[in-house]
Write a structure and sequence with these properties.
The protein has about 100 residues and is an alpha+beta fold. The chain contains 2 helices and 5 strands, in the order H-E-E-E-E-E-H.
Length: about 100
């Protein structure tokens, strides 16, 4: 039954997602999921050619499979993105206050 659920998940998700080894604890099985993106290019002038490429891999979450067959998704939390968003909001507020106080003079 657990293997059937894993096969269904694999069929429903895209080709760029990677599944880690399932981890069982008690009656629950966790399946970690990651994403890999590849990119590259090639070009140059007449005699000078070059190229480059890159790989980006990141965790996107985990599926939990319960003993009764229910499947739940648990997304990974990117703390760096949350902190960056807070800093951006703070910077926007500081600039808005500076503009508002400057216009009063």
């Amino acid at each position: 039954m657990e293997q059937d659920a894993l096969d269904k998940l694999k069929d429903q998700l895209g080709d760029h997602q990677i599944f880690g080894e399932p981890v069982s604890q008690g009656d629950t099985t966790l399946v970690p999921v990651g994403e890999v993106q590849l990119g590259g290019g090639w070009g140059g002038r007449r005699d000078d050619t070059g190229g480059g490429g890159g790989v980006r891999a990141r965790a996107i979450g985990a599926f939990s499979l319960a003993a009764d067959g229910t499947v739940s998704w648990h997304p990974a939390v990117n703390v760096n993105r949350i902190v960056w968003g807070g800093q951006l909001a703070l910077a926007t507020a500081v600039v808005a206050c500076a503009i508002a106080f400057r216009r009063r003079r």
